[in-house]
Amino acid sequence: MSISLPSYCHSRDAFANLQQPNANSSDLKTAYIQPYSGITKSNHHSTISFTTSYRGRISALTSGAGDDAVSSPAKSLRRLLASPGIHLGPACFDALSAKLVERAGFDFCFTTGFGISAARLGLPDTGLISYGEMVDQGQQITGAVSIPIIGDGDNGYGNPMNVKRTVKGYIRAGFAGIILEDQVTPKACGHTRGRKVVSREEAIMKIRAAVDARKESGSDIVIVARTDSRQAVSLEESLWRTRALADAGADVLFIDALASKEEMKAFCEVSPLVPKMANMLEGGGKTPILSPLELADVGYKVVAYPLSLIGVSIRAMQDALLAIKGGRIPSSGSMPSFEEIKEILGFNIYYEEEMRYSTKTSPSRLERGYSSINNSPDSIQHSSQNDLEIRNQSAQDPVVEVVTPEIYDNYSTDGSRGPYLGIWSRKLRVRITGRDGFEKLDVRIPAGFLEGITNIVPALGGINIKELLDDAALEEGGKQLLDFNDTMGDRIQVFLE
């Protein structure tokens, strides 16, 4: 399949220092799109080919870029913008959604202020979320993936001086690009009512401030200049502003809420050397939804899909809650298996890496302690019996034996275990069940670990465990040593195995 793209989509002066791929050379990777197999279009514009084999992905990347391509997120993004093709970017709202975007094979993604405000605050995108919250969320997102992220910088959170601080903060947070708009404060989603914009002069000065902040930081973060003046004023005003913002140093231009395909074409004819961004607001925005091929033909370079991930997440959670309320659990087809969830979150990778560092003297979770007074996940820090059984079933999970220095001291010079023959070679099993019936702790420790056992279960303080062990020393098999409820109502059982 072939699509034709305007030549200016990959000839921007700002990217002149980047290696340009040759469409006829082996440097050009195949790009992908599923829904449009077998279509061919060509005209006087430059042509690039696509084949279909990976769902939802459309991009063309160079393969011989060398170390430069990964030297910074911004360089990776600039290289992507300089390559042929139209590039699709879903909008993530947290670290998990960003990981899913990367796993799906996308080469970059956006963050969405709409989605972050919804997921982090449970509030509408009406200027309520702050710069600090957006930067913090951004650090979590960029730290979770290796693909470049274009961050939603709203209106820079103030005047041009605030814009400089915002840009520098986004650079430190690891963003490859930042979108800055010309709305007044408080700002809001561009497809909602009541949009207002700052003056032309202030809009231009904000982009100049962003460029200065980039220079002062020694960064090459991509600056995406957005104007909301189409809905706030007129199409003519938005076209004038995009020209001025390009002259001020913007790397990518974006008019939000264009109302027709004709308006989109008029926009793409402005400052033809500067890449254009489209916003396909799913579910009923003001801009018509065009296919990637249509957008490429109009002249767009990058496309954002801002609501897909947050939207389907909301609907999936609603359906799951409805099922639970009706006494059911969500169907297996509506959610991944537990093993799939663990794989997505990186449990298996963690276990493999953990094995590299495991030793017989590695501190265990036993030494972190248990308190029936504070039984939150952060304070208990232990696995449930079910989790232990699942881990024991995995061939990749390391088995770490906890051995205290006292046990080492009792090894004899000939390698025999000396006093640890008999009762001391056996193990104590400590099991704690909450008054709600849920298991809080189920661990096995060396029977010689008596001094540390009260650090694990303070409720055992004052009980002579050694005397109980001495009484059971000659008994074969397992024996229950203790079974009682502590002051918080938790049931504590100790077994000799």
From TrEMBL:
Alphabetic keyword roster: Lyase
InterPro entries: ICL/PEPM (IPR039556), Pyrv/PenolPyrv_kinase-like_dom (IPR015813), Pyrv_kinase-like_dom_sf (IPR040442)
SUPFAM superfamilies reported for this sequence: Phosphoenolpyruvate/pyruvate domain
Family matches, as Gene3D superfamilies: Phosphoenolpyruvate-binding domains
Claim: Protein biosynthesis is one of the keywords in the record: no
GO molecular function: lyase activity
Protein name: 2,3-dimethylmalate lyase
